[in-house]
Amino acid sequence: MRLLVFSDLHDNWDFLEGLKKEREKADLVVCLGDLSLKYDPEIAEATLPLVDFYIPGNMDDKRTEEIMLPRHMHARILTYKPYRLVGIGYSNPTPFNTPGELSEEELLALGKRLVSAGDVLFTHAPPYNILDRITSGAHVGSKALREIVDERPPLLHVFGHIHEEIGVEKRGRSVYVNLPPAMEGGYAWIELGPEIPIVEFARMP
């Protein structure tokens, strides 16, 4: 299965233009939130027909979520045999009081209800101390998500939110991916097959 996954669009209309062609090469297109810094509903309306699944980020307001509802995979488990795809949107609390934040307790409850070992996990926020470092050097990922992935290691965990530590990290049998932000044209191709997931970062033409 070939996935095209992106996050943190932040009003990049050029990215959506490129996605119209690139999406034809993917089995599934997944958006991990933060469509607009300005809460622009037109961005959501343009994104909706281009993606198969969406989880909200911390910068997505209620209007954005309403528009994207037909693609919503927050708090859902989707089965594409032999894979289970799990979505957990929003972020742990930030200093900025953004509209899409959950407490660590809420994230932990969601994770315990939804996640099993070996899942393909999509979240907006990273787990604590995994590709979550900001410019100051602080780790700002979710401690709840870290507890979940330590207890129930996923096959693959893909997220965005933190733009400073883009990369791929393998821990045990799990592969963790912090996506390059779509606001800068970045996204990832991910191949799910019999071996470990293959991740290739790309930039929208």
Description:
The protein is of the alpha/beta class and 205 residues long. The chain has a single domain (2-203), classed as Metallo-dependent phosphatases (Purple Acid Phosphatase, chain A, domain 2, 4-Layer Sandwich), CATH 3.60.21.10. It has 5 helices and 11 strands. It has helices at residues 13-22, 41-47, 62-68, 104-114, 143-151; strands at 2-6, 28-31, 53-54, 76-80, 83-88, 120-123, 156-159, 167-171, 174-178, 186-191, 198-203. A hairpin with a 2-residue loop joins strand 4 and strand 5. The longest helix is centred in the middle third of the chain and has 11 residues, at 104-114. The two termini are 23 Å apart. The mean pLDDT is 98.
What is the C-alpha radius of gyration, as a whole number of Å? 15 Å
Q: What is the helix content?
A: 10-25%
Largest sheet features: 6 strands, mixed
Number of E-state strands: 11
Q: At the first level of CATH, what is the class?
A: Alpha Beta
Structural class assignment: alpha/beta
Spatial arrangement of strands, main beta sheet? 4-5-6-7-9-8
**What is the helix tally?**
5
The secondary-structure element order is: EHEHEHEEHEHEEEEE
Secondary-structure topology with pairs:
Layout: E1 2-6, H1 13-22, E2 28-31, H2 41-47, E3 53-54, H3 62-68, E4 76-80, E5 83-88, H4 104-114, E6 120-123, H5 143-151, E7 156-159, E8 167-171, E9 174-178, E10 186-191, E11 198-203
Parallel strand pairs: 1-2, 2-3, 5-6, 6-7, 7-9
Antiparallel strand pairs: 1-10, 4-5, 8-9, 10-11
Helix pairs in contact: 2-3, 4-5
